Amino acid sequence: MTPSACAPPKETSHYQLLGHPTDLAGHLRTLGPLPLPATDGRAWGDWLLRALQASGLSGRGGAGFPTSVKLDLARAGGGIVVVNGMESEPASHKDTVLLTTVPHLVLDGAQLMAAACGASEVLVCVPAGRDRVADALSLAIAERRAQSHAATPEVVVRPPARFVAGEESALARWIATGLSLPSFRPDKGVPLRIGRRRALVHNAETLAHVGLIARHGPDAFRSRGIPEEPGTTLVTVSGAVALPGVVEVDRGTPLQDIVARSAPVDTIGAMLVGGYGGTWVGPPDFEMPYASISLRTIGASAGVGVIVALGAAACGIAESARLAHYMAGQGAGQCGPCVHGLPAIATDLTRLAQGRPDPELTERLLRRLTQVEGRGACRHPDGVVGMVRSALRVFAADVSAHQRGAPCPQWNDAPQLYLPRDTGG
Amino acid sequence: MSSTALWYSTRASGIVALVLLTLTMILGLITTNRIRARNWPGFAQQEIHRRISMIAMVVVGIHVLTSVLDTYVNISWAAIVVPFTSSYARFWVGVGSIALDLMAAVFVSSILRARMRPSTWRAVHWLAYLCWPVALAHTFGMGTDAGEPWVMVLGTLCVASVGAALLWRLRATGRRGPVGQQSAPSPQAQLEPAGARNLEPAGAVNGVRRDA
Amino acid sequence: MIRITIDPVACDAYGYCAELLPEAISLDEWGYPIVNGAPLPPGLVAAAKRAARDCPRRAITLREKKGGS
To answer: What pTM does this model have?
Structure first.
């Protein structure tokens, strides 16, 4: 274990997202008041910007974009702050946990961002069908309204429950027009818009961190995690573990330490890190710190805080084929390479899992992976390509066996990875 | 120019315009993104469609000009763009001016194509589907040469070829389907045995899990 | 330095761009364009402008990129 990853938390630092009271009174008692400016303060906005810069907070929604930079781009009056609680990643549960147990922390973060960029509205996005979360949020918002705690009006909205609906430009477009479709954004420096107004879209966990950093200061945040990637991160652990769920860990904690807390039931053969569009990691890399700076060395990134543990007895190729099929069906249907390429890749992977490859399969699969990557409007196809590439690498032994025509003995077993029934929203 | 010469010019340019407009329609109809004929570049087809439509516009211009300049019948300048205001053959000249107005709209929309939303441009361009039959009606409604056998044969050929191109277009587009559909049926069922275990973390275990 | 950008949402695989500019644009197996990332040589700029103008879906834009981005 690298020293920076297991540095013990300082005595004075109690930085944590989870475990605070859910009700507003308890929340304020434990964490203190919300440090909003008394008057419309450009200077206050600058202070928050500097605090976020100093903290080194980056987005917890998957892209890992520096939060202060995103705020800087959106600072013009009259905009909208959007809380992305969509959590379309099937293996992720952290935003649901946050929004049901510490909603005020997330909403406080949204209020702070709204004040800093002059927004006039906070929209909280929860997918259609996830009524438990929506109800918890509505309750919290009602509490805040009753106690005049929220300066900027907060409203819950319910976009469709499709995977791509959680992508930030798709969210902005849905709010503006009702169409849940990502936009092509070649220039990320141009801020998102909802109609004519600027939109600042942030993952729920990112905003929760903002809510804490504004109260405890950037140093408290930096006291956890590693210098290159400070703070804590919420990770959903699932798969071959006895205690699946959401844990809060220092960023940079080794992967196997995170999984150990959830009591693996089996020898772990591989871990899927970062979500279903993330990366497979094999046993030689189980000690790797959960941080993009380390994962980059094996072509991965932290993505969304997700680790799925695959038992050694399961077949990674079969599971990857199922994932690829699921993800192929979850695109927006706008871009040819994604619409045609992902099902083709999934089909070839299936053939491999069933031990029915043709001689050109490998060459065709690799060619298509390269062709599809980077040619969609959003990062959806890139995630799938990355996942499949890592599967071919980590499960190379299985690939060789299947190429020789041996079907996977496990592919008739119950699937290890959870896939939601498509609600067709 | 004598009135007779003008009159012949009007009739001739009218027939030629109809043929050119028919060609334009056919070329426009067989433009689709899926069919790749060997050695026939798609951009060239688009280019020819444009150029023939320009020539058609010029010939329509001659047709309209000569009809107004011909003093034998009274068709005012205004009547060529404002339907049903001509003193001569009010109805059928009116039909012609409708066709002209529609053609002008299609033309202008294509000139300004870069400045409008693609859906707007397409909506205006599809006025061509209205323009062509109206122009055809005007040709035969005016009646001057409509009774001639060769004109009737020509008219039938025009209708038949546009009809064929339209049918082809409908079939080609129908087969393609919207981009949103997957190109191959998903064999997902083969990989997902019945009773897939739901591993969603129920009653999510949260809370602080620190080592020390 | 001119760079070709293709909007994948607007693109409908007409393929005119690949016909007009085969040196820079090729088609994948489904008919969608792949732009080779190299900067456009000056001799091809006219063809690129024509490809952008002729695209039925207006999916192509040409951008000025300073230096090696």
So the answer is: 0.84
